[in-house]
Amino acid sequence: MHFDDERLEDVIRHTEILRLPKQTLATFGITNIGYYLVTEPVYSEPEKDVPETVIREGRVITERPRIVTPHYLSQFEGFSLDAQRYFNMLLKKYGPNAPGLFYSYRNEPKGLTIVAGDIPTVVDKINAEIDKRGDPLVTIIKGEDEFWDVSLLKFIYEMTRNSMNNNLLQLQSRGLLDVDTGGVPLDAKLRIEELLGEVSKGKIEPSELKDELDRWGLFEEYQDRLFAVLRKRH
Fold this sequence. Notes:
The protein is α+β, with helices and mostly antiparallel strands. The protein contains eight helices and seven strands.
């Protein structure tokens, strides 16, 4: 459903993160966060004797944050002209090789239920269930029924913002933010080594590794090793 910027801002403003996970995003691994997203039904009638609440359950899977540069991001295809202008702004402001973090997320919806009770009552019950399980990686989000995925994105943004400083400090302490003379962070070189291993085991297609090498401008440097791996596979 299409809606204008003003409506988008209204949805974001009325989204509330009622319970944050007790842990931030992992720096060196995958983070699996369960969520309960509660909303009033779009058909809600204030005069009804028994209010109802919609509960959407699912999981947000966060891959290990990767170190990237403005130049690297600008190599991705499928972005609009506005996005390309943004990349050019980053290039001018920070330089092509300034390291930053790239977070990738996957939403895995689990199900939807409609229960009797207003949102505060339902949230109290969900909180009690979470406390009983002792699960540190669960969130409760109050959003809007029609635009629940926007509310979920607000949580993702908040979680990323709360985790970034810690992630950067841990990466910096291991020297992974260091950039070589070609403008490639050490973390990117380690990532390429991982991809080489995955290609050799047949876990990923060689094209995935080639795309990564092309984005960093490293294909010539690694092509002999890539071809050697491919010969072993055949």
